[in-house]
Amino acid sequence: MSPKLKTASVLIIDDEQSIRRGTSQILSEIGYLVESCASGLDGLNEALSGNYDLILLDIKLPDIDGMEILKTICQKQPDTFVIMMTGFATVENAVKALKIGAYDYLSKPFSSDELIIAVNKAIEYKTLKADNLTLRQQLYQQYDFKKIVGEHPRLKETFAAISKVAPTDTTVLLDGESGTGKELFAGYIHTLSRRASHQFIVADCNTFSGSLLESELFGHVKGAFTGAIQNKAGIFETANGGTLFLDEVANLSLEIQGKLLRVMESHEYKPVGASRVKKTDVRIISATNRDLKKMAEAGEFRSDLYYRLNVFPIYLPPLRERKSDIPKLAYHFLRLVCKNTGKKVDGFSDDAMEMMVNHNWPGNIRQLKNVVERLVIMSDQDVVNYNCMQSNFEIDRRSGKDSVPNNLAGLKSFKRELLTREYDKVEKAFLQKALAAENGNISRASRRVGMQRPNFSTLLKKYHLSPAADKNTTSPTN
């Protein structure tokens, strides 16, 4: 018996002294904590006041019917398991007790082995149920919708679709750009499913080469290839009963696509080097940031697999399509970064936030999170201001493939932003140079560059510049 079972507590409610004594002795000897009551009313009061894992309840008691006690326990102590006992065993009584909520049924006289098997089975199931609940709570914490911040109608449409498909075993395809949170959404689908108590496993199809990915997915037998010194279980075996999330599925080789299709159609697969097939029961959620339909039409992706994966497509909108959520997301990430770093930054200035909202965010939520983290670290003030944004924000445009637009409209938008950023830097330096040359005198600086003073002052406000801020500046004279 496992350590968990040895600490389980059992209450026996039976008017026969011999049953109480014999049952108590048997269960105590194998490690259970046992109490007993001779009457139905005493037993019911004890059951409701105590914290028992299991109750052995006689169906026929002199003062109150055992079925009534069962009903009350099921209503008021739903986490307590009940095994009914009776010397008048009938199918009708068994069915009735199980319908009310009893876990099992024992017919008197029962042997010590029958008692031990029934009690162990009940406690083991109760322990498993509690473990599953803990696992589900952990999953909810990890993939909580509260982490998916936003109230944009496009996002609400995504939530609605997930709530409908999650409780089923339907295959889901998450379609969205890089950085839109596909793994987070996949995990949440899993937590809402009937498979939540089983494994949720992520397989990044970008990580491994074709041969390595095949071994990761399907496992291999000893001697299948150089370095295969022992049998290895694959992801499909580990995820059995649970959910497998295939991220960036468009990168699968055609050979692996064929083997994946077979698993989805027959629930069978063959480990690398094996001669026998294995069975698996896995729900598949896949994700892509590429157009699988066009890839299938071009022969770059198997069309039969595409239709298998695309049973229930869910579109995850990019951040630029839900700009109203950017302030909420920015403050959400700001709080997280402050908590993790110990820095105290209260928020963003209006013009800094305006700059964030107007940005195209080619890297989506992931990019926004990284930018906020950098800004909080670099900020020397209580509020991230425009100057801090100017100095640290544009660094992210060199972040790599996420910065490459997906269409002509995105390319044009990126060009405008790039020109604006570069021009703003030159314009700011232009103002600083003019001020430095005239020792911070705004009137002389504006005349020096051929601008009217009001226009020069407007630009200074735009960049939050003041003559005193320049290191070469003396006290300004106006």
Write the layout of secondary structure elements.
Blueprint: H1 3-6, E1 9-13, H2 17-29, E2 33-37, H3 40-49, E3 54-58, H4 66-76, E4 81-86, H5 91-100, E5 104-107, H6 112-142, H7 153-165, E6 172-175, H8 182-191, E7 200-204, H9 210-218, H10 235-238, E8 243-247, H11 254-266, E9 268-269, E10 278-279, E11 283-288, H12 292-297, H13 303-309, E12 312-315, H14 326-341, E13 347-348, H15 350-358, H16 364-378, E14 383-384, H17 386-392, H18 408-437, H19 442-449, H20 453-462
Helix pairs in contact: 3-4, 6-8, 14-16, 15-17, 18-19, 19-20
Describe this structure in words.
The chain has 478 residues and is α/β, with parallel strands linked by helices. It folds into 4 domains: 3-137, Response regulator (Rossmann fold), CATH 3.40.50.2300; 143-315, Rossmann fold; 319-404, Helicase, Ruva Protein, domain 3 (Orthogonal Bundle); 410-469, Arc Repressor Mutant, subunit A (Orthogonal Bundle), CATH 1.10.10. The protein contains 20 helices and 14 strands. It has helices spanning 3-6, 17-29, 40-49, 66-76, 91-100, 112-142, 153-165, 182-191, 210-218, 235-238, 254-266, 292-297, 303-309, 326-341, 350-358, 364-378, 386-392, 408-437, 442-449, 453-462; strands spanning 9-13, 33-37, 54-58, 81-86, 104-107, 172-175, 200-204, 243-247, 268-269, 278-279, 283-288, 312-315, 347-348, 383-384. The strands form 4 sheets. A 5-stranded parallel β-sheet has the order 2-1-3-4-5, sandwiched between helices. It has a 5-stranded parallel β-sheet with strand order 7-8-11-6-12. Helix 2 (17-29) links the parallel strand 1 (9-13) and strand 2. Helix 19 (442-449) packs across helix 20 (453-462). The protein is elongated. The chain starts with a helix and ends in a 16-residue tail after the last helix. Residues 1-6, 395-402 and 469-478 have low confidence and may be disordered.
